[in-house]
Specification:
Blueprint: E1 8-13, H1 20-33, E2 38-42, H2 47-59, H3 61-85, E3 88-92, H4 95-101, H5 108-121, E4 127-132, H6 135-144, H7 155-172, E5 175-178, H8 183-198, E6 210-212
Parallel strand pairs: 1-3, 1-4, 2-3, 2-6, 4-5
Helix pairs in contact: 1-8, 2-3, 3-4, 3-5, 4-7
């Protein structure tokens, strides 16, 4: 019996405020126009675990990282089902987010442990897109949302995390896009990068449709 082909897992990464959720939604719509079954998802999947992770990260980055990793482990069955059902799964964050946020505040030995745990807990993205933005502009955007800042939404923190993201991008060969570009341009550039990989991915049935889950 031949193994059922899995969908393509694409992760959008970047500091808070770069527009990951907006781009994810735009990509789902682009996929629909091209007849590709696609779904968007975001992390953390469990809001309670996500809140605990953010609060813990201020006091103990390792504990915060473990909370996020547990969330991904618990969400893995749902992710696997989506990858079996859709040709394209776009995730707003992945375990690389934890490596950037919590990992950048940890020592090398802890980061290596975190990388190993993450690899066991969840799927590694097939493609990662880093939306790069100056933390000052990111904070301005966050302010326009009309809500209070999250525990990790501080300039010094975001500057550290932005540096960590850029280092990860160089290490793993991610596509890096300037998040100041218009949404349509970002969607087109991202689609151009992932489309060739979709040629071998399983597509949906005769009437493809796109869905977005938040």
């Amino acid at each position: 019996m031949s193994r059922r082909r899995s969908g393509l897992l694409v992760a959008l990464e970047g500091i808070d405020g770069v527009g990951k959720s907006t781009l994810a939604g735009a990509l789902v719509r682009v996929a629909a126009r091209r007849g590709v079954r696609a779904v968007a998802r975001r992390e953390p999947a469990d809001r309670t675990l996500g809140h605990l992770a953010q609060e813990a990260s201020l006091r103990d980055p390792w504990t915060g990282a473990v909370y996020f990793t547990v969330d991904r482990f618990l969400a893995r069955p749902a992710l696997e089902k989506e990858l079996a059902r859709y040709a394209l799964v776009i995730t707003d964050r992945s375990f690389y987010s934890t490596l950037a946020y919590q990992g950048s505040a940890l020592g090398r030995s802890r980061v290596r442990q975190l990388e190993e745990l993450s690899g066991r807990a969840t799927r590694t993205p097939d493609l990662v897109i880093l939306l790069d933005l100056d933390p000052v502009e990111a904070l301005r955007r966050l302010g326009l949302r009309g809500r209070g800042r999250g525990p990790l939404e501080r300039r010094r923190t975001l500057e550290r995390v932005a540096r960590a993201y850029r280092a990860l991008a160089r290490r793993h060969g991610w596509l890096v896009l300037d998040a100041r570009r218009p949404r349509r341009e970002l969607a087109e550039a991202t689609w151009a990068a992932l489309a060739p990989r979709l040629s071998g991915a399983r597509r949906g049935g005769r009437r493809p449709r796109a869905e977005e889950r938040t």
